[in-house]
Write the structure tokens for this entry.
Amino acid sequence: MPPIVEIDNLSKTYDDGFQALKGVTLAIEEGEILALLGPNGAGKTTLISALCGIVTPTGGSARVGGHDIAADYRAARSMIGLVPQEITLEPFEKVISTVRFSRGLFGKPRNDALIERILRQLSLWDKRRSPIKELSGGMKRRVLIAKALCHEPRVLFLDEPTAGVDVELRRDMWRVVEGLKESGVTIILTTHYIEEAEAIADRVAVILRGDILLVEKKETLMRQMGRKCLRIELAKPIGAVPAALADFGLELSADGCELSYTYDRQAERTGITRLLRALSDEGLALSDLQTAQSSLEEIFVDLVSDEAAA
């Protein structure tokens, strides 16, 4: 089965010469959650806008469900639901009327059962007759998702869907997204919250300055690029790392009570045995040892930093 979203060498250059997309090529499989990560200005929103017909690409091509986004715009756009960054809702309109109206814009017949199911899925049914202006920020974002789902799209773009939402509501939104995936919707998520991608994404794509740096399964990325840190708690504090331990690249905590040793867990030799022997030779007594896997956030920061320095 071909990917539901196929992007081939897509580029976008604005009139002032700024190149927002530089030949992006990407395939997104049906039913997956892809997290698109990148700093501000990396090209995330431009890419989504191009696929949704908001921005006209200057080169390359893209297809959604086999429909070319330019030559077969209406068919492609009918398969897409978009939840934008900005909350753009009519404040005095009721929730249910807002969602019904959006369905009508796509030429779909009235379907009260579907609208009820979507509103219940998003915990909005009890608020269906409330004016938008009475909703919290998190509830307004749920309305945006309901609007995007009301015409039954197969692909849902979420552009920073939890921006400005507190941690509890953010985790609640993650459960909503997982539920949408279970119903068969393909989801492309852009986010500044790395833990969001780590929690719900199947694959991660990293974009920087209009280029896709990599696309990889989340677990594979963390396994291949993740590092581990051995934290060594000392029985007594020290003022500085002994010169004899300089080759290990140890970091000493501010209170002098903990040493941190970072290593590649995929390497044939981690150096831990040699380090512990060296610590003993220096007469340093240990009170505890702990290991921690590097997070997706640390991997992302390292990737972007390395590319920026190149």
Observations:
- The chain has a mean pLDDT of 88.
- Residues 227-293 form a domain with the Alpha-Beta Plaits fold (CATH 3.30.70).
- DSSP finds ten helices and 14 strands in the chain.
